[in-house]
Amino acid sequence: MDTPSIDDLPRPSVGRLAPSPTGLLHVGHARSFLLAWWHARASGGRIVLRLEDLDGDRVKPGMAEQCVRDLAWLGLDWDGPTIVQSQGTAEIDAAVTELVARGLAYPCVCSRKEIEAAQSAPHPGQEKGRYPGTCRGKWPTLAEAERATGKPAAARLVVEPGRIELVDAFAGPFASDPWSEVGDFPIARRAGAAAYQLAVVVDDGRAGVTVVVRGDDLLSSTARQWLLQRALGLPHPAWHHVPLVVDEGGRRLAKRSDDLSLSELRTRGVPAERVVAWVARRSGLPDAEPAAAERFVHAFTLKNVRRTPLVLDRGALAELVDGR
Ligand SMILES: [Zn+2]
C-alpha cells in the first residue's frame, strides 16, 4: 500500500517580513510589509520576521529595535521568535563549506579594485564589478587559498552562461542571465561574513519560507537566489515582486528620506491607521474604519494591486501627513 510521503502533504504557506536595520523604515517599506503580511494572513499562512543585519558596516545601532517597533506600530504581528540573521550564521557557513567541497563554489582572493580593473568597460546589462572568473579552479579550499596567497579568501558560486527563465507569481515571467550580469558571485565575503544572497536563501530555507512578497528592486537578485536554492537542494518559494513607492520624479524612496520615515510620521502625530489606510486605498482595498491592518485581511488579494509604481506626489503626501 502506498503511504503518502511527507512531500505529498500540502505545505502550509510561510511568508516573511525581512527588514534590514540599515536605516529607518519609511512609507515604501510599510507598503511592502503590509502587502506581504496581508497576503500571508489572507491565505491563512504563517509569517516570520527576520532582521537582515549581516551587513555589519551598514547596520546602525538601535535600528533593529526600531524596525520591530515600527512593524508593531503598523499593527503587524508574526509567528515564532524574531529571527536575527547575525545570530545564526553556522548554517550559512556550513553551506559555503559544502558548496566549495562539491566544486560548486570556489575561493577567491581578488580585491574589489582588482575586479574592477579586470573589467575595463562594462557592457550594457552588466553590473559594475562583474567577476571574470579569475580564481576559478585555483584552490580546493578557502584555507588553502589563504595559505598560498597570504590573502583573505572569499567564496564565489560557479555560474554557467545562459538565461534563467522564471515566473513571478505577481509580476509574471522574467528572465535574467546572472553569468553575463554579475558572473560568479560571492557567497562569502573576505572577512568570513556571509554574502547577502546566500544568507537569504539559507535563512528562507531554514524557516520553511514558501512565499516571498517584496519590492521589485530585488527582482535582479532572484535568479542568483534560484541558483543557490538549486545548488543546495532547497525548494524555490513563490516569488511576488511588487512595485515600489516612488517620488514625483520616479525615483525610489531612499532610506535617507527620513521625513517619510515611520518614526518621524509618528512623532508628527500621524496615526498608524492613516498610514495603513493610505496603503490600503492604493492596494485595491475598500475603506475600513478604524483602519487597523487586520481589518483588511479578508478583502485582500494581490490581484487587485496595480503593477505600476506607487507615486508619492504632493497630493498623496498631504493625504498621508495631514490627513486630507
Ligand atoms: Zn578572484
Question: What key phrases describe this protein's structure?
Answer:
324 residues, alpha/beta, Rossmann fold, Glutamyl-tRNA Synthetase, domain 3, 2 domains, three-stranded antiparallel beta sheet, 11 helices, 12 strands, 15% strand, elongated, binds zinc ion
Provide an overview of this structure.
The protein folds into 2 domains: 10-89 and 201-321, Rossmann fold, CATH 3.40.50; 101-165 and 175-193, Alpha-Beta Complex (Glutamyl-tRNA Synthetase, domain 3). The chain is α/β, with parallel strands linked by helices. Helix 8 links the parallel strand 9 (211-215) and strand 10 (238-242). The termini are far apart. Helix 3 crosses helix 7 and helix 7 (196-207) crosses helix 8. The mean pLDDT is 91. The chain is 33% helix and 15% strand. Residues 108-110, 134-135 line the site of zinc ion. Zinc ion is lined by residues 108-110, 134-135.
